Amino acid sequence: xxxxxxxxxxSDNYIWIISDGTxxxxxxxxxxxxxxxxxxxxxxxxxxxxxxxxHGDHQGGVEDLRSRYGECRVIGSNKILKGPSQAVSxxxxxxxxxxxxxxxxxxxxxxxxxxxxxxxxxLESPVAFTGDTLFVAGCGRLFExxxxxxxxxLQKLNTLPENTSIYCAHEYTLANLKYAVFAEPDNSDIQRxxxxxxxxxxxxISTVPTTLFMERLTNPFLRxxxxxxxxxxxxxxxxx
Length: 240
Ligand code: ZN
Ligand code: FE
What we know:
By secondary structure, the protein is of the alpha+beta class. The chain has helices at 32-41, 56-59, 62-68, 147-157, 173-183, 188-202, 212-218, 227-238, and strands at residues 3-9, 13-19, 23-27, 45-50, 73-75, 93-96, 99-105, 114-118, 127-131, 134-135, 138-139, 165-168, 210-211.
């Protein structure tokens, strides 16, 4: 079985480490320091890096990790990044410690953004690393893509199994739910989730991963009926 460790970085980033007990892959290492600390603590050596997109808070630690773990591969986004990263595209399969991860192109936040999905038996449930595209109760800002891009990307993720664990790259949940209550005032699932998340965050407990099932109930962006509703909500949230 594979394990997924959570590493906190900067003020609200999550870096994810997939481990088989000996080797590890890391997703979106914006900073190498907390990644190396986690690898050392669990006596893991790094075999590979998955990148969801080019932003510095997701790949800033790559060069440092590459120089420390010379053999490690660097895979993603779908554009050529600094250093020896291998660009990926829709449908490509990547072997991560025996688990097959499928690349899903999800433009919107950036144009190169990809997600990685696996339903390998080595994992407790299906898993998706969604970077800055699908957050808990939210979605990424539209820096490069259009609302149509983001709508299409979220709907693509929405076709995954409902028990998929969603590992996103930021702890934005509380702010997202405060907006979600405003966007869908009659949605009692959102209201209930806000109460439980307020409690978790007051104790500094992480709200990630989430499940696609919970997002279908409480994420106003995933729940948008069309790209224009998503566009309106995104604009509203940007100024909320
Ligand atoms: Zn980003
Ligand atoms: Fe980010």
